[in-house]
Design goal:
binds uracil, six-stranded mixed sheet, alpha/beta, about 15% strand, Uracil-DNA Glycosylase, subunit E
Length: about 210
């Protein structure tokens, strides 16, 4: 393992340990497991969901329930797999009964997300769902309109000092019982595939057409 890789791994393991023993907000009282996130520390793409659900809380891993299965299919559509991306959530512990996370809970968890972004330093962040989009746009100092307007759009943002591309899309859970929503998600993941190809091209030529 290259020295830099080893250092990243050490930093992430320390961070995961902190997240697993975190008591900064009341969600620690009802969690079975915290869900720090998982994937490649060299990932070009980082996916950010909202918060763990029941299955994620039981297993301590992100997106392992029905929405996760759909996410796997969408990743495949974009020519990606779980091992090469990094997947996490805005909030690392399950809110009881899957309620929306409170603003104070998101704030308590923010330094963890910041550190993850710093360690991985992705080229592109894809937010999954409205809550994650709102949170990331706000942290980047941008105003969001609506998820339907923002989905599939690519912006260049500065997030915790890192210049990164941001593409919001819908939450996979919203598509489970709605074929129309699923179609929109598929559109966005196909666009993601194209965008990743553009990022690989010499000088990232053609990137301007996304803005
Ligand atoms: N929904 C999310 O937002 N995150 C998960 O990890 C699972 C479901």
């Amino acid at each position: 393992m290259a020295p830099k890789e080893g250092e990243k791994k050490k930093k992430m393991l320390e961070l995961e340990e902190k997240i697993r023993s975190c008591t900064l907000c009341p969600l620690y009282k009802s969690r079975k497991n915290a869900v720090p996130g998982e994937g490649s520390l060299e990932a070009r793409v980082m996916f950010i969901g909202e918060a763990p659900g029941r299955n994620e809380d039981l297993q301590g891993r992100p997106f392992v329930g029905a929405a996760g299965k759909l996410l796997d299919q969408l990743l495949e559509l974009a020519g990606l797999n779980r091992e090469e991306v990094y997947i996490t959530n805005v909030v690392k512990c399950r809110p009881p009964n899957n309620r929306d996370p409170a603003a104070s809970e998101k704030k308590a968890c923010q330094p963890y997300l910041e550190k993850q972004i710093e360690i991985i330093s992705p080229k592109l962040i894809v937010t999954l769902g409205r809550h994650s989009m709102m949170e990331i746009l706000e942290l980047a100092g941008h105003r969001a309109t609506s998820i339907m307007r923002e989905r599939g759009k690519v912006r260049k943002v500065r997030l915790f000092g890192l210049e990164v591309l941001l593409m919001p899309t819908l939450h996979p859970a919203a598509a489970l019982y709605n074929p129309g929503t699923r179609k929109l998600l598929e559109e966005d993941f196909l666009r993601l595939k194209e965008l990743l190809r553009t990022l690989e091209s010499p000088g990232e030529s053609g990137l301007e057409r996304y803005f």
